[in-house]
Amino acid sequence: MDNQDEIRHRYLMNRRTFVGTVAAGAAGPLFARAAAAQSAPKAQNVVLVHGLFADGSCWSEVIARLQPKGLNVTAVQNPLTSLKDAVEATQRVLGLQKGPTVLVAHSFGGMIITEAGVDPKVSALVYVAARAPDADEDYTALAKQFPTPPASAGIVWSDDEGRLSEEAFLRDFAGDLPADKARVLYAVQAPFKRALLADKTTHAAWRSKPSWYAVSTEDRTINSDIERFMAKRMGAKTIEVKASHLSLISQPDIITNLILEAAGQTSAMASPNR
Q1: What is the pLDDT of residues 55-93, one digit of tens each?
Q2: Burial of 258 (0-12, 13-18, 19+ CB in 10 A)
Q3: Rg of the chain (C-alpha set)
Q4: What is the pLDDT of residue 266?
Q5: What pLDDT sits at residue 41?
Q6: Cβ proximity of 45 and 97 under 8 Å
Q7: Rounded Cα gap, residues 235 and 206, in angstroms
Q8: How far apart are CA 123 and CA 125, in angstroms?
Q9: DSSP conformational letter for 92
Q10: How far apart are CA 144 and CA 266, in angstroms?
Q11: Among 53, 28, 235, 19, which Cα is nearest to 127's?
């Protein structure tokens, strides 16, 4: 059995039990065991990494909540050209931090923090509806083991640059946001290079760093079950948020509290979405 067959077999064996447990509200012991395993030094710095169809401004709601807590917060402007370029941009920001730093990613940004998160300054990782590949893993092949999310059909290409159509952005990417707010976000989305989708990480920082994961239960951009699969594989402290792919904007209090927990600043706020 090759690696991908093993992944598919393990997923098919565990999916019904795991999802059923979450739906029944009995996932507390699983999450409690994951939480008990987490141990990170208190951090004063938070570095935020955006994914596809966005720019650094997508973190504005979270930044506005973290700064009053006395945290030094920086949003990376991910160039979306190649994984190497994005990792280097993140490393430059990490180089400016003094002391333990929580590295946070949304969506494709999970690829970046999985690679860059091995930096000694990184004390914890937080994944928000994000990719969390293993080292040298073909994420595209992994994703094919799960239902294809609707947003994938909404990518519009111009030569080798892709972006979401306005219809797909409003419906499948930002489905729980008011249309006028979603259109503002649509206007600032940065195009990405086609080659970016084939890049692989060479490290898996989550294997050595305490990790947290926020699953978006209404996600139409990354399948919610692959999010659950990756979070469970990581042994991450996991919460479930009733939100679109943009939980960092539609549910910023919940995402902020998860980051604060990873920073050792406070316990994550209890929520009916957990």
Answers
A1: 999 999 999 999 999 999 999 999 999 999 999 999 999
A2: buried
A3: 17
A4: 72
A5: 79
A6: yes
A7: 9
A8: 7
A9: H
A10: 37
A11: 235
Domains of the chain: 3-262 (3.40.50.1820)
C-alpha span between 42 and 132 (Å, rounded): 23
Backbone angles phi, psi at 148, to 5 degrees: -70, 125
Hey, which bits of 80-210 come out as E strands? 101-106, 122-128, 155-158, 161-164, 192-193
Residue listed under structure tokens 């914890």: 124
Relative to beta strand 161-164, strand 155-158 is: antiparallel
At 270, list the tokens. 């209890």
Residue with tokens 């640059």: 161
CA-based nearest residue to 74, from 59, 85, 87, 61: 59
Q: What is the pLDDT of residue 230?
A: 98
Return the pLDDT at 38: 54
Would you state the structure tokens that stand for residue 274, as one six-digit string?
């957990």
Is the distance from CB of 125 to CB of 117 less than 8 angstroms?
yes
| Residues of the chain under the 70 pLDDT cut | 1-39, 267-274
